[in-house]
Amino acid sequence: MGFSEADWIAIGLTLRLAVTVTILLLLLGTPIAWWLARTSSRWKGPVSALVALPLVLPPSVLGFYLLLSMGPGGPIGQLTTSLGWGTLPFTFWGLVVASLFYSLPFVVQPIQNAIEAIGERPLEVAATLRAGPWDRFFTVVLPQARPGFISAAILGFAHTVGEFGVILMIGGNIPGETRVVSVQVYDYVEMMQYDKAHWLSGGMLLFSFVVLLALYGFRHQRSHAALRMGAVQ
Amino acid sequence: MRGRRILLSLILTAIVLPARAEEVIAAVASNFAAPMKVIAAAFEESTGHRVRLAFGSSGKFFAQVSNGAPFDIFLSADQAKPHALLNAGLAEPGSAFTYAIGRLVLWSPVTGRVSDGPGALREGGYRKLALANPRLAPYGAAAVQVLGSLELVETTRSRWVQGENISQAFQFVATGNAELGFVALSQVMKEGRIARGSGWVVPSSMHRPIRQDAVLLEQGAENPAARALLAFLRSPRSAALIESRGYQLPVSEE
Questions:
Q1: C-alpha A16 chain-centroid distance
Q2: Chain A: closest CA distance from residue B127 (Å)
């Protein structure tokens, strides 16, 4: 029987959401990761904890607070209304904002680890060669931390695709706008249409496995490459 | 070592031993949570049996019961799921009955926003209209029937936001994220009237009745307390309580 038209709309929406969120998170997460990797400020602990919160918070808690804060009475809602954007729940951009919070640690942590692994020395060397901060970032950090960025992008993307609880709380199940694949599967199960649920669930299972396989395959390759480099040195 | 083995066997025994015979585990549709808590408390008090209540969506309970969940009775939000369980041989034949008929209300948390009629729907001036997903929830299907009989389906459709169940539809309106919503009367009624905001209690002639059926599950067939709780649910004492919470009862029951 395959996917219905509604399934394809949900799949398209999910991919659009995940791509948007991944791009935004790489842009927003990199400065945070950079700061966390290099600072010795006393704020490092609290900020790290804030970034990691979505790892431990139940999506229902996150969704509940987002629904309240993005609503007309909440701080985010009042901000977006005063900017003339209306309120965010039940919109695609509402899901984007929620996913930015939800997937933040999955993007920040791999980049932070990769930057920490570079250490001070290459940056000091670059500085003695008169490379400015931006120059150092683009010619030293970015190439050296590339595996971290790739892991971050894959994890951020995959985690957003797998999002469910938060979207259920603030989405409103609007086709083409907020009804993503995970919600569609939930609907099928609730409607007792298990055959349709199987198609989408099987698709998600396969997709997730392939993504993780790519990630681990990539890491494996890197560690071999690192070993070879070590041997040469 | 020996101590640990004893502890382990104690834990295993606690897990494996069947629930005490006089305990009922009831799966209850979330819209009926509030009245059921009161009914269960009264039942416990008058019989000495114990009741454990699980609240959730009927569709999920159906899937769980089909896969061996340890529920004795099931109070669904519709008739389809208890009957599907009967057909699958997972419920006691002849045990299904309608325990409540839901009433729909067009509601806003703002006082005076909804007058006694569909005016607020026609006038516009709202961005979002919350309803339960009509494909999943009987209250949602009823809401769409009401919009249909008002010939407002097409003009309002772009403003619909759908909760997975009626609790979520209520949540969307109560938090102000949707200005109007079709919710269950039982969610906004206290002591016989709408407790907060403003609402229009939709005449039941405008939609098919939202009949909610209960059924004795195979699991509870040998449990006398399960039968006793179902009987208690049909007693005049429960009936008065169910009606005071914004539900109707089937005529033959009254």
A1: 13
A2: 10
Say if B159 is an interface residue toward chain A (CB within 8 Å).
Answer: no
Q: What domains, with CATH codes, occur in chain A?
A: 5-227 (1.10.3720.10)
| ipTM metric | 0.72
pLDDT, one tens digit for every residue, chain A (233 residues)? 789 999 999 999 999 999 999 999 999 999 999 999 999 999 999 999 999 999 999 998 999 999 999 988 899 999 999 999 888 999 999 999 999 999 999 999 999 999 999 988 888 888 888 888 888 888 888 999 999 999 999 999 999 999 999 998 898 888 888 999 999 999 898 887 889 999 999 999 999 999 999 888 877 777 666 555 544 44
Q: Do A189 and B59 touch (CB under 8 A)?
A: yes
Instruction: Give CA B101 to chain center in angstroms.
Output: 10
Closest approach of chain B CAs to the CA of A60, in angstroms?
A: 12
Alpha helices in chain B (DSSP H): 2-16, 33-47, 58-66, 80-87, 119-123, 138-149, 153-156, 166-174, 185-188, 224-233, 236-244
Closest CA to B105 of B196, B212, B202: B202
Q: Chain A contacts of B172, Cβ < 8 Å?
A: 89-90, 172
The answer to whether B167 contacts chain A (CB < 8 Å) is no
Domains of chain B: 2-101+211-253 (3.40.190.10), 104-201 (3.40.190.10)
Task: Give the nearest chain A residue to B128 (CA atoms).
Answer: A90
